[in-house]
Amino acid sequence: MATINVNLISGRSIQQGVAIEGGKEKPLYRTACGIIELDPSDLKELGAWKNTNVRVTSEFGSVVVKAIETTQGPHPGIGFIPMGPWANKIINPNTYSTGMPTFKGTPVRVEVAVDQQVLLGIELVQKACRGETV
Amino acid sequence: MTKIVTDVICPFCGTLCDDLEVAATDDGKKIIEVYNACVIGTEKFLHSQASDRVTRPRLMQADGSYKEISYDEAAEYTAQMMAKAKKPLMYGWSSTNCEAQSMGHEIAELAKACVDNTAAVCHGTTLIAVQDIGLPTCTLGEVKNRADRIVFWGCNPAHAHPRHMSRYSIFPRGFFTGKGHKNRKLVVVDPRPTDTAKMADIHLQVTQGQDYELLNAFRVALKGEWLPDVVAGIPKEKIYEAADILKSGRFGIIFFGMGVTQSLGKNHNIDEAIAVTKDLNDYTKFSIMPMRGHYNVTGSGEVMAWQFGYPYSVDLTRGFARYNPGDTSSIDLLSRGDVDAMFTIGSDPGAHFPFNCVKKISELPSVCIDPHLTPTSGVSKLHVPVAFNGVEAGGSCYRMDNVPIDCRKVVEPPEGMLTDEQFLIMVRDRLKKMKGVA
Amino acid sequence: METITITMKNQPALYLEADCVSPDAFAGMTAAQIAELSVYEGNVTGTLGKYFDVTGSAGTTAADTKIIVRGDVKKVKYLGMKMSAGEMVIEGDADMYVGAWMTGGKILAKGSVDAFAATAMKGGELTIEGNAGNYLGAAYRGDWRGMSGGKISVKGNAGSDIGMYMLGGEIVINGNIDVHVATHAEGGKVVIKGDAKSKVGGQMVEGDIYIFGSIDIMMPGFKPAGEVELEVEGTKGKFAHFIGDMGERHKKKKGQVIYANLYKKI
Amino acid sequence: MSEYVIKNGHVFDPVQGIKGDKAEVAIKDGKIVEKAGSGAKVIDAKGMTVMAGAVEIHAHIAGPKVNLGRIYRPEDKLFTCTPTKGMERMGSGNSIPSTFKTGYEYAKMGYTTCMEAAMPPMFSRHVHEEIRDTPIIDEGAFPVFGNNWFVMEYLKNHEVENTAAYIAWMLRATKGYAVKVVNPGGTEAWAWGLNCLTVNDPVPYFDITPAEIVKGLIEANEYLGLPHSMHIHPNNLGNPGCYETTLDTLKLAEGMKANNKFGRESVMHLTHTQFHSYGGTNWGDFESKAKEVTDYVNKNRNITIDTGNVTLDETTTMTADGPFEHHLTGLNHLKWANVDVELETAAGVVPYIYSPNISVCAIQWAIGLEIPLMMKDPMRCYITTDHPNAGPFTRYPRVFKWLMSTKAREEQINAFKHKDKVLTQTSIGSLDREISLYELAQMTRAGPAKSLGLGNMCGGLKPGMDADVAIYNFNPEKPVANPDDIEKAFTRCAFTFKSGVEVVRNGEIVSTGHKRTLWVNAKIKDNPQVVRDINEKFLKYYSMTQANYESLGHHFVPNPFAIEVDAT
Q1: Do C142 and D72 touch (CB under 8 A)?
Q2: What is this structure's pTM?
């Protein structure tokens, strides 16, 4: 199976904003934030169709999200996961003693994971806290 | 019959729009329609009306299930936790009003706790930079009335602050800006061609993590000094050109966001951006402003500063206030295992902290005060649902430019539900008794 | 010189703040008196003796006092804070603020130390045989008066933001460093014998940085100014000379603009 | 409410002309009374000095720029934060204390009424939230008008009545106390990076001069009959040679007469006069012009002033004079904060160290003392440090020491590195006047109270006035052995009473009292034009709605005290 390495950034999107106000226990939150936006060239290199589940892994953790074609591109080499528990499972928590984690700029590996599920937000956090794979 | 409430303040982002109109039923119980708000603000008002809303405190049981308890029991549980802890962390505050923040600070003082707000994961590094070199800034109306140069650096208002551009920054016609956006030059710096960048006269697609270098190059370019051929992925000609555009305006402003506060360089990115702004004042008038996220994170910083002297990450454990992000900041406290109880209000660290910190929260005695079900409520031992501030309760809030605006109550909360402030008063009174304070 | 030894016996559950552990605070005291000094674990005040065995005795003055810290003090903050004279040896790793605000005396940390060591140091010597954390020899938040004197030596690596707002004194790192070094400095000397990453010397007004290894990304504000032969910390060699930060303000002396210098070994 | 009778103390009360006589002061129901009941608690003030609670006429103690100072100066608090103690909340800050510490420190020094000197109207809710959290002392706040678009547009056509109507609206909307002017026109010019350095420099776009703004605001102030006069920080602050601009500004009040029911005689209050009394053409030939300025003020009875004494500390400068702070950061290269406020004003903040080793700082120190020593009428000259600009207010006792003791002044002059320069550039060395306790009571109590239009309420011990009393451990019958004893005595009161409540005993807080917010409610004739103008500006140019601007509910001002003015 092909894997690609991208630089992960997280951040806001309007769908993320709507979803957090609409209820983080709801599927809409997963639709908005349980995704990774990839450049079409990176999707191609990964050998994945749009809207395929992928496992994204960094030095700090691993999470399953749905790979979608970027809405604000092109940005080859950059992956974007809207801010939320999915992104935070894998971002670099190093604060460099400033109090601020490195939410943007974490090297990650992306691999296709069609048979794995993207969890709901609260479920993801609860399972991960229990030490289960998410 | 319906009644229309006017001049309603939107309790979502730091733009703190105050021109919403809300149609509610005559008995003041139900919201029917929201006018003038962005899609997020509208959702915020309407979601408060969800039929499946949790309305009573819930205590997690040993098997992971929840048991409904009374507010009295919840206040007692919270006060006990605060009284027992050696180093409790009281985190959040950015989605509640200044009155509740003030009451929370009394609790923090009694319990000798650490107090921190969501700047910790948002604009905390901005505050560090401001402490290092200052901040030439202005109110948003100044931008509307005067600005002809707008820079969005590492921020994407099209998504995060949807009405910012129409109310204040790009489109409005003001006193000296009668032609609206036609007289404004827009520069966007972002590693992605975002929806904001697509509107720009110049988009500099900076290499992610090299904003500090690019900002430094701007300062060099303003002075007309030597530059390497390419900085942070941008050819030097483009940097000189952009620097000239900024210099040639009458009134300019840099808005910046988490693209710079959270990337490598952190506080120094802002530090250098402020230095660019300061330098530009040698040629014209320039200001800079952080795009604050939560609608009242600014207020939390203000109240914390006038009461304790510092805008966030305050440690009261020794009985007096101390401050040093890296030591007294939430992420470092949790990552290092330097707290033994977690009190969350008006924010969702479960969703927005790195996972190692969330796991730590799940292992601690913990209380989450939040109208919503959230990842934080999902890992906390006690969840106390409260009225939606800005919808079901009013109170003082501060916009991203520090302008104070008093939020309005639009409808009644569901029967028997308390506001943040009311619940905190119950906790404070109990804690006072436990500590033997009159 | 009298020696007092404190040995960790009861680990704190959280972290311990032991700003009393300095020759200045111990001077003139017996071991029993020292054991009664206050330390803090969160909001609970305890005695030093609750956590440490205290043996030996202190000298009459700080200068006559040597402190040996034994056992696992990875979770102890503020060792040697504000010390003005005397000596301290920390045998294992220590937490934050080792030698912070120190004005004199010597500290030898045989292990590694965490962030904020030697904050705003004015004088004395701090030697770290392991690694140093972030903000080594940096200013306190908001203060433009950073390290102004003394010497810091690190055998291992150091973190980010070392020597921020440095005004004087010397920092020598044998290993590698993370991002940001001597940011906003207006004096002083920093020598890095290993590699640096990026953001080296940003916003520097005055002062000198020597880098023996590589720099991942140069600051655009440092302009090439030729090559020089130098002897640095006992090593002779050819260095590429850069002046900067060209974007920053600079003083003039006798009509000449004074820049900060960055020397990179070739 | 408790009754008290203060016995055996040496009373200094300019309102009644009592100059150190042993007199009884009786307190009942929050007021000074002729005689208290037999059950009154007796306070023995033997060997002590008894004065009315002091009145602060000009300090920056609450609001956005003060808090910006707190936010951006963690180093101002390092190692000095104070713990919860009895009734006291935690405290922090040296040059910019937290709100709690501000209230406690003033009360401990015997101050009971304080004025926040510059309230940006748009930020009035913030100012009032901080005032609410400042315990004990009564406070008012001065909204700034000197760069306000409405004011400039009205006064361009000399529309005094409309200006007055606008001021009345603004005082109501912001719960403000007086008309404050800072660098008239210059701060609006600063919105474009420019300034007005003389009273005749035109304000960009608005086609008006600072002189016209100042004169018009005095006229509007007297049209309304407000308790305080127009309160001005003139153009060209802090520059060598600025005294000429100061004299030009003072002259604008010539021929104007006070019109009010409060006993106020002045029409202009010149604040922090020290910063406006500089001669010379550069920092090298910088010199004092205190004599020229005080000569003018001595001759013109419709002017009051305060001093702005430099205390030789590290401090934080903050002012609505935006261009000045930009100028200052260029001189000392320390961190610069600036906030421009739409349609109204601006503010800047820069830390500053008044070093006794720098000649300019030492000369500034001398000028600050020359002014009160040269003023003939202590009822028209008040002691301030323009806190925190020339030094923190907590240094008042040290300023009193310098004023009351030539020996203390000599000691300080001898400690300066550039002593000779101080002596050639100022006349501080030749002034042997020592301010008496009675004069001190005039300069810190009766005088500022009168200028604020509060002369019937506070600043004195006459029966019927508020029972604000400060008792100092200072025996006026004993010669002062060491000038430092003066400083010590005035730093911590033996007792402070605020509105009849004992708030300080032996220098410690024993009650947080019933703090009030003072504001002025001016009634005017209906003025539809001004109402329309206000509506229009909000629709077009403000970034918040008029309804939200005007909403300043009870929770912001929980204990208001409105001073009513009728100008209908």
Answers
A1: yes
A2: 0.97
